[in-house]
Amino acid sequence: MSTENEGSAVPPAPSAPPPPPADAPAASAPQGAHAGAAPAAGDPYGAQGSPAHQDPGPYGGAPAGPPPGGSSSAPDASWPPPPPPSTPSYGGDGGAGHGAAGHGGGWGSGWGTPYQQPAPKSGGGRGRVVAAVLVAALVAGGLGGGLGYTLARENDSGGSTTVSSSTSGGNVKRDPGTVAAVAAAALPSTVTIEAASSNGEGGTGTGFVFDKQGHIVTNNHVVADAVDGGKLSATFPDGKKYDAEVVGNAQGYDVAVIKLKNAPSDLKPLTLGNSDEVAVGDSTIAIGAPFGLSNTVTTGIISAKNRPVASSDGSGSQASYMSALQTDASINPGNSGGPLLDAQGNVIGINSAIQSTGNGGFGTGQAGSIGLGFAIPINQAKYVAQELIRTGKPVYAKIGASVSLEDTASGAKITEQGVGGTEPVDPGGPADKAGLRPGDVITKLDDRVIDSGPTLIGEIWTHKPGDEVTLTYERGGKERTTELTLGSRVGDS
């Protein structure tokens, strides 16, 4: 998803304070200057529906949650499935042609009317008081200085005088668990990724150290340009830059693994948390390179869990589905692929998408944070990354049925006809064995409410092939339940 940053130019500060009344005493003072410058049908990925996707390399823009609209007929079984209309874009790619978790942003019109310097009041009681205070301060300062000089001369016995100043505030200590302490520990294990295709197009995203062998986890949309003959590099906060290569990428999950060439021996993988145990209201810390500003740290909370999100980078590429962690930590283009940490510094998600309200400003064409960011839960991302490292290909769980991507809010309906004339329920597949039929409307998967096909796909993909789930569905106006063992599909095509 993509969000856009709305705002405007800061109103100018008044050039000077209003002049004091004529009868107020003038006080001179020192002057100085301060420089401040899954497919739905056909089951490519799970429920066999065409997935929709988005970016936190690139971010697009569309409402969070399942993509609206869509045809009630089964989507094309071929991969990649077309992104659903009005889907959010990715959030993390600050470069051209991509959005990523934390990409893009612009400011709109001003905050209001220009600042009007108030006219001086007549009568000037306040002016007299201020001037009197200034004079008193100057006199007191001068008197104190004079007394000090006199006492120094009287006490001077001809020896040397040592002038010492006491330190104030004591030593700065940042306890474990503070944002500063967590950031200091995590930043050395994050990288800014630059990806470019063979024709030079690309963008910027983020990644983090997954193991000591040099594997870096990020978003698929961050490195997609470099998959076929492109260039890929990763830069650490200390400025050390390494060439890298794509080990494997999963378009449906929006997860990718790259490996550093000539990786250093002192890599420190980030500790992975348990995204299932995350609670709404938990503190979050996001690290990334928003708009190319590497090593940026932002904070927030978990504002929702299990948020169904279908995202895309808006370029016509395949869509991704996730049952996301929602956070209000500021995420912009360039944040995509970066870690979302808990208060102890454990990775609980991969920043992937942002909700957008429109296009960005300043000619960037990108959107910025409006406090609606989405991260892939780390429990799911860990499984995907391990499969990519092991085989180079993603593995998706599936039920073996074609579902409609239409946003009906009543459930995920198994289509009456499969893609390209195929059966809507795979003969002998998981759904067939569980007794599901065309026209059945799936309303729950275990305890998760299912309101659409994309929501079902996202929930299925939080599981692994072989997992047993309970499906609640409606047939002929009656509610039923069935047990189903998830099947598997290898690869994105």
Automatic annotation (TrEMBL):
UniProt cross-references to InterPro entries, sorted A to Z: Chloro_Bact_Ser_Proteases (IPR051201), PDZ (IPR001478), PDZ_sf (IPR036034), Peptidase_S1_PA (IPR009003), Peptidase_S1C (IPR001940)
User: Does the keyword field hold Transmembrane helix?
Assistant: yes
Could you tell me what this protein is called?
PDZ domain-containing protein
Domain of life per record? Bacteria
Going by the UniProt record, its keywords in alphabetical order are: Hydrolase, Membrane, Protease, Transmembrane, Transmembrane helix
Regions crossing the membrane:
129-152
Q: Where is the composition biased (Gly residues)?
A: 91-111
Species of the source? Streptomyces tendae
**UniProt domain PDZ: residue ranges:** 397-477
Locate the region Disordered: 1-126, 154-175, 416-437, 471-493
Keyword Glycoprotein listed? The answer is: no
Q: Which intervals carry biased composition (Low complexity)?
A: 24-49, 157-170
Query: Which taxonomic lineage does the organism of this UniProt entry have?
Result: Bacteria, Bacillati, Actinomycetota, Actinomycetes, Kitasatosporales
